[in-house]
Amino acid sequence: MIPYSKQSIKDVDLEAVSEVLKSPWLTQGPKVSEFEAQLSEALQTKEAIACSSGTAALQLAYASLGVNSDSIGIVPSVTFAATANAFRYLGAKVLFCDVNPDDGIISLSSLEEMLIHARKNCKFNIGVISAVSLAGKSAPLAKINELAKKYDFLLVEDASHSPGAYLESDNGQKTYSASCEWTDAATVSFHPVKHICCGEGGVMLTNSSELSKRAERLRSHGITRDTDQSKERPWYYEQVELGWNFRLTDIQAALGIEQVKRLDSSIQKRHSIAQKYDSAFAESKFCGKIDCPPLLQGHAWHLYVIRFRESTLRDLAYHFLKERGITTQVHYIPLYRHPYYAGDHKEENFPGAEAYFSSCLSIPMHPSLTSTEQEEVIKALGDFLH
Question: Which of 12, 109, 177, 262 has the smallest count of CB within 10 Å of its CB?
Fold first, then answer.
């Protein structure tokens, strides 16, 4: 089978993990701090708090901002459930907004409508927008930041798909995903199919030392050792609030350290794969039948998502390609369609999400994809459309 995505593990990764297994520290050792320093430098933030998953990173980000049962989180309707679930874990109410039908990125007009609705009809102490940079394309964070300030909301970026991505303004200035230039915090996932693989893991990023300190405390049960008594009694600690065990192990951190070193080359490889798809799908047998994502220089290409002009073909293509040994995936089923989030949310209120969801298909995209495998994908898709 040719998977739609997979981890890329090299000998240096195996050696790094093996060294930790031979060391005295399997967890709560020096590798996590080393990994965090490397992430801060690579992703251009002041602070990085590594944790056990991308979901944990979202929960730490929201909790550090003060989200609780009197809060509201606004989430784009097309994203993985974790973006919304992390609000619910803290008891917050979740509102969905629509997305652009062509790329699944948050719709600014729908977001503003939801912000107005929240201010007029909901009582809450803290409001947070969680903007998702989907498939490797950065969300328009500067414009979302303007709306957040206008309606007195905080802003978090779910950058699980987009480390290394950027948007370039008309004057050539680049805004990097996950850099927290326009956000209070950002999060990245280290799931195996992501750009940086730790098996599982994640990181909360911020330029605020105050948020960083709270997230670090919440990551380990809400415990602090920074007390007057600990100066004389190094073993002394205090739990000052209710946190969680969201720690990352040194084993995972060692793998992550080697993976970050290859982040730039990984993105370059993904760009080359996207360019080849783009050239192939410009041929007449594909034209008018599928739409492809624009070949943006600042795209990190976590996913390569095609969209069928006839939405009824999407599911047929999924099964056809699977029979040819090619796995694809749909990213994502809109959150309001899930039973847990169903109720007041109606599909007709999200025309952009419905259009995107009904036609999107993620085809194989990962650094280990060979030229031969990619040619097989292109041929099989051409055969299906024929």
Answer: 109
